[in-house]
Amino acid sequence: MTSEDEKESFKPIHYNGTHDDPLPHSQSQPQLHAQQQQQQIETEEASPAVQGRPWMYNPIKVGPWTLPWYYASPETQLIMVSFVCFLCPGMYNAVSGLGGGGQVNFKDVNNANTALYSTFSVVGFFAGSITNKIGLKLTLSFGGFGYFLYVASLLSYNHNQNVGFLVFAGALLGVCAGLLWCAQGAIMMSYPLENQKGSFIATFWIIFNLGGVIGSLIPLGQNIHSTAGEVNDGTYIAFMVLMAVGFVLAWGLSDSKYIKRKDGSRVIVIKQPTWTTEIKGLFETLRDDYYIVLLFPMFLASNWFTAYQFNAVNGFYFNIRTRSLNSLLYWLCQMIGAYVFGRLLDLKFLSRTVRAKLNLALLFALTMGIWGGGYAFQKTYDRHSSKPDMDWSTPGYVGPMFLYMFYGFYDASFQTCTYWFMGSLSNNSRKLANFAGFYKGIQSVGQAITWRMDALSTSYLREFAACWGILAGSLLIASPVVFFKIKDHTDVEEDLKFSDETLKEVQARDQTQTLALAEMPGEK
User: Fold this and answer.
1) Range of the domain at 460
2) How many domains in the chain?
3) Which of 299, 369, 468, 483 is deepest in the core (most CB within 10 A)?
4) Quick check: is 516 in a domain?
5) How distant, in Å, are the alpha carbons of 154, 192, 412, 424 from that of 420?
6) What is the CATH number of the domain that holds 400?
7) CA dihedral 269, 273, 275, 280 (to 10 degrees)
8) Does some domain include residue 423?
9) pLDDT tens across 141-155, in order?
């Protein structure tokens, strides 16, 4: 087949799942079927991206039920990476949400967190290059192990106050988390079709934060009759077991080159990554997509508030069993926030450019409303006030409870929008891995700063003011990207400029494949 014939046979297919032209009706069905088979054979011979084993593309059966996905589908891979994060960072969030990692002495835990986010910020920024080189399985599994070791250090601290081990585990977790979150972000943003990115982000965020919800039930159940200030050994051991399952689960993921979407298109990757190409690619991303720096303040702000919320609000104001309940409600509201904004970001009757602008405006309104309520609450106490140790049975608990729930809703809303804005700029897995690395690296700079501020006994009102100011300011700085750089569709040819793949290797293979995949059980 000549190059001209190939161009004619493989018409570009947009990532919204629509074809440029319908099937020709002038050909008879046998002729058309024979031609499609020949195209399939030639495509598979020419493309290393189609060498996955046949079982990867068969429907998954669980007993009498047939699931609407196959193993190498974006949906299955998203569910798997969501449960890795559910079991590792999700459980870590449950521990952190208790305030001071469940310890009475917040200072040592704050220093460990400062070490964590310091290494996270450095490794995270370059994590895209590392992830693209070593692959998703190793990246996610190594990343999950760091969470396991960190909780082990908290268990050790419960008995011997070994600060050195705690800080070391925090620093190592920063390295591991930088890699894990980079790989997760690349999967979540590059695997779905363009019109599914909001729902993919929401699905991940819901499953991930379910880890925080279930994880919060562990200390709540074990400490429900206790008014003490620290958690017991059984709590930490339970978290360690779940985290171990998580980092082992990561080895079940498929390689990106085998992933096939329902329209038959492939994930854009680099086939032969080297350390040189990936370090070079990192700086090429900054050079060619220079406008991404306008999103950096959003990256910085996206977890700036966690030290304040976990320690200055939940950790300082409530006793241990109420902190456990608050933590559960916080993560539950994160699930709700992700679902709401995931649906809003994928509204079918609005163009992508309109959705981007409307959601930015809505996020700004939430920033003013929720954090305005937070200001009214924060004025009632400060770090040097006597600890209220409020219990859920105490009169006046309902107001602070709802504020903490809204903080959780806002966190998920802010991060869902941030990921969606990044994902709307490209469909290239390699580039989005770099974007995710920038995001988590810069996010961690903010967390390193705020945990250090808390360790230095900064006034709670000053911590609050810094949170509110950077959140509002970051949205204003990001607005030019949202208004002028996000388009209704990203051309595949543009994404291929940052890859060594060809159009033939990533577009939908033929109509037969497209129809076969689209008509799997449960799909319409």
Assistant:
1) 77-496
2) 1
3) 299
4) no
5) 35, 12, 12, 6
6) 1.20.1250.20
7) -50
8) yes
9) 999 999 999 999 988
